[in-house]
Specification:
Length: 438
């Protein structure tokens, strides 16, 4: 089954259904109760815990681990959610190896940190499975807030505002809420439709309405929202993908990695999803790794990540890079794309070797080619649409009018991490609450 007459190498069902199902099962299985207690017992419960400082949402990690150790997982979950309402997803997708676990005293002493991420998942999964919602809304304030974007920043902001008694309307351009948690991460990191389950659980606080299919700048303007609501929060993410600026990048078989990942996340039968035999992914971040690994898991024979700088400058963590190579993905560094070759559809990608010296990145003049029938661009995203939102500098929201707040990737301060987007949404909600009640 060919994806296109021009791309005969891109086909579906490269692997049997049972093998694909196994490949996309939970990458890091959950701890059972005994395993969680053993893992929790390794924590020193430090007084000045460096893991808390390393967590962008400042979760009281020693406290929730102690609560797990004493058999009160639901109390541990509440401790997590008080700082990070999307703690369940963050436990699955956060690069804990470069955040809390890297700062763990056990890591410094033994080279093996406490498994903070897996313990966080154990606590939140246990509490969610038992039903209910641990928070109760305050009395209604009579104030309404518009939240644009139902991604991590928007959801965290909406929940905290609802907790304070404000009524919230979330405007989301896609058909489903969740943002990158739903559309932008590897499927094997979040199985069994967890992203939607977490959204449904979060909405139990009450006072939050979600309007899907509504895009800022197309269906509603910032002026409309400022007129109809007492405050506005923008968590619109980044909708555009940077261009390769390489000749021939418009050929058949070249596409954005984020679109591929979103399609994969929304496909109920992965045997119907076409993938190339020779896949090249251009970029060095988590999106590049997720696209490359999932291409391999779908049955691509040769998958290569090509990054223009040195491997130490890749924004994907060392853990994720190792995961990619262990899955059979090759990583080539210090190479930049200069041309995509092929008659209508991609057949090869030409790269130039680079050097990164004090004067910047330069091409050496020496080139090489990689065979490719499918190419994914993962070289960063930029703000698109919504021209009336605010001043935009370097593709990110820079200045906002009165009564408008913003957070997450659209502001450029989110580091492309769910956890930092959650922190910004939560903190913006506290600022909005103070402003409205002040």
């Amino acid at each position: 089954m060919s994806n296109s007459p021009l791309t005969p190498g891109i086909v579906a069902a490269r692997l049997p259904a049972e093998k694909i199902a196994a490949h996309f099962s939970d990458h890091t299985p959950a701890l059972d109760r005994h395993e969680a207690h053993v893992a929790a017992d390794r924590c020193y419960f430090c007084h000045d815990a460096p893991c808390i400082t390393a967590c962008p949402t400042s979760i009281d990690i020693p406290l929730f681990i102690r609560q797990i150790a004493t058999g009160t997982a639901e109390a541990a979950a509440r401790t997590i959610w008080e700082s990070n309402i999307l703690g369940g997803m963050c436990a699955r997708v956060c690069p804990t190896e470069t955040l809390c676990e890297e700062a763990c005293v056990r890591e410094a002493a033994e080279g093996k940190p406490v498994e903070i991420g897996r313990l966080q998942r154990f606590a939140t999964d246990t509490a969610m499975a038992r039903g209910g919602h641990p928070f109760t809304r305050a009395a209604s304030t009579g104030k309404t807030v518009a939240v644009v974007g139902a991604g991590p920043a928007g959801l965290a902001c909406a929940h905290r505002l609802a907790l304070h008694g404000h009524d919230v309307v979330i405007y989301e351009r896609r058909a489903k809420a969740g943002g990158l948690n739903e559309f932008g991460i590897a499927s094997y990191k979040s199985t069994h439709d967890f992203a939607q389950a977490e959204v449904d659980w979060l909405l139990r606080i009450g006072g939050i309405a979600i309007k899907t299919g509504v895009e800022l700048g197309r269906d509603v303007t910032l002026a409309d929202l400022r007129r109809d609501h007492d405050a506005v929060f923008l968590g619109i993410g980044l909708g555009g993908v940077n261009a390769l600026r390489a000749e021939g990048e418009d050929k058949e078989g070249v596409r954005d990695a984020v679109d591929f990942i979103a399609e994969l996340r929304q496909t109920s039968d992965l045997t119907t999803l076409p993938v190339g035999r020779d896949v090249v992914v251009i970029g060095g971040g988590m999106t590049a790794v997720d696209a490359a690994v999932q291409s391999k898991l779908l049955g691509a024979q040769n998958v290569t990540i090509v990054y223009r700088r040195g491997q130490e400058k890749m924004s994907a963590s060392g853990y994720e890079q190792d995961h990619a190579t262990s899955a059979g993905v090759r990583i080539i560094c210090n190479a930049a794309p200069v041309a995509v070759h092929g008659n209508g559809s991609v057949r090869e990608v030409e790269f130039a070797y680079t050097v990164d010296d004090p004067d910047g990145l330069k091409q050496t003049g020496e080139t090489f080619r990689l065979k490719a029938d499918q190419v994914f661009k993962a070289i960063g995203q930029t703000l698109t649409g919504a021209p009336d939102v605010a001043t935009v500098e370097a593709g990110k929201i820079a200045h906002l009018p009165a009564g408008v707040w913003a957070g997450g990737d659209c502001t450029g301060g989110g580091e492309d991490l769910t956890v930092t987007a959650v922190a910004q949404g939560r903190d913006a909600a506290e600022s909005i609450h103070s402003s409205l009640m002040g």
